[in-house]
Amino acid sequence: MIQLSSNWSDFEVLDAGDQEKLERWGNYILRRPDPQAIWAQDPLQPWDKANMFYHRSSKGGGFWDKEESMPASWNISLGKMKFIIHPTAFKHTGLFPEQAANWEWLINKIQSSKKNIKVLNLFAYTGGATVACALAGAEVCHVDASKGMIQVAKENIQISNLKDAKVRFIVDDAVKFVEREIRRGSKYEGIIMDPPAYGRGPTGELWEIEKDLMQLIELCKQILSDEYLFVLINAYATSFSSLGIENILKTCFKADHKELKIESGENALLIKKRDLLLPCGLFARLERLI
After folding, report:
1. pLDDT in tens, 151-182
2. Which residues of 192-204 are buried (b: 16+ CB within 10 A; e: fewer)?
3. Which domains are present in the chain?
């Protein structure tokens, strides 16, 4: 299954190839690395017109070569949702636009339930899914190990005119937070997680997705309410396929198979002028058939 995010007007992939991608973010064109783009670039596309060009460093990391007039950050919109774009020294922009397909799915699930929904968003980054769930009317608990990312997520909620939404922001290690929620008896109707391949919590907790993902999902199962709606998992730069995550869900939720729809696949972005799809990571999800 391939999910495409096709509703953007403020974002598009102009081209990709030779392990780079050329994107328009609002009024600005960015050129940056992408190891998935292993085919050739189209020389007719405006590769030399980028307002910002990310160069890798031989010592690790890299830097942006940018026009003097470029702002440090700017906003883009997707419907009623607004997001701050702030290119970092690690080539990221603070948003993964391919996730818009998941946001649409989340909004539909929450709004069609016609119930009070509590959602837990783990490894929540700058809060794209948090904004989507809050817009749909859910109460959201947003957990990330980075104070800086939490601050951006708060700003994304504000500029999306969701300041009155019920969103709780927690700086914490995802596993430790879920373990505490189990002890507190907390319950959620939906759980989202976007774990890195490797990472560290705020006090140095080590995360390795191959070793730790199944344990975390088993823990999360204990804080799902009796009438839960969904579990959504995203993954990037992993050594396994989406079927691996799908199999974890099937294993963990084995007794409930008849009540669930479980599916997996890739997120992708369309390069319209070349009719190509740029791979953008994996997803697996389950929804309870009500």
Report:
1. 999 999 999 999 999 999 999 999 999 999 99
2. bbbbbeebebeee
3. 2-85 (2.60.40.1180), 97-288 (3.40.50.150)
